[in-house]
Design goal:
- The protein has 150 residues and is of the alpha+beta class.
- It has one domain.
- 25% of the residues lie in helices and 23% in strands.
- The protein is built from five helices and five strands, in the order βαββααβαβα.
- The protein has a five-stranded mixed beta sheet.
- Strand 4, helix 4 and strand 5 form a beta-alpha-beta unit.
- The longest helix has 12 residues.
- The radius of gyration is 18 Å and the shape is globular.
């Protein structure tokens, strides 16, 4: 999907899917042990994100699908689902907020994406909505001077 539209920069498309578990006093080590996989990110309430930023408000355990960001969102969701499917009852029973964070980033503001139906099973099983954080880098800023209506 590489295109050289109005600039010299080729279009790019990046996707991600992350299982997120947030709550007070999470058993971080027990979650890793039960799921049989280490978190790709975890933190405790009060820890600093980075110098100068406010500390975290809660404990968190995150698992980002180990899929190349260039692969479509369907692949990320399928891989995440493959890992957690046997553990859905455990995840739903945790005294925590469990969700799936999906990301899509591109420099092409006229592009879109689709997700295959089987890849959405994870949302139904966890009883969480499907949502995507969408970031369009530079495309809009370059076109703000162009009229939207002709």
């Amino acid at each position: 999907m590489t295109d050289m539209s109005d600039s010299d920069e080729p279009d790019y498309y990046a996707y991600s899917a992350t299982l997120r578990i947030h709550g007070p006093r999470l058993p971080l080590d027990a979650i890793s042990k039960y799921l049989g996989i280490e978190a790709t990110h975890q933190h405790r309430r009060g820890e600093k994100r980075r110098a100068g930023l406010r500390p975290y408000n809660d404990d968190a355990w995150h698992l980002t699908a180990p899929v190349a960001e260039e692969r479509e969102l369907t692949h990320h969701l399928r891989e995440l689902w493959r890992v957690i499917k046997p553990h859905v009852d455990y995840l739903n029973a945790l005294n925590a907020k469990v969700d799936v964070f999906c990301g899509y980033r591109s420099n092409n503001g006229a592009a879109g994406f689709a997700v295959e139906p089987d890849a959405l099973e994870i949302f139904t099983a966890l009883r969480v909505p499907f949502g995507v954080s969408i970031i369009i880098d530079s495309w809009l800023g370059q076109r703000l001077d162009e009229p939207t209506l002709q």
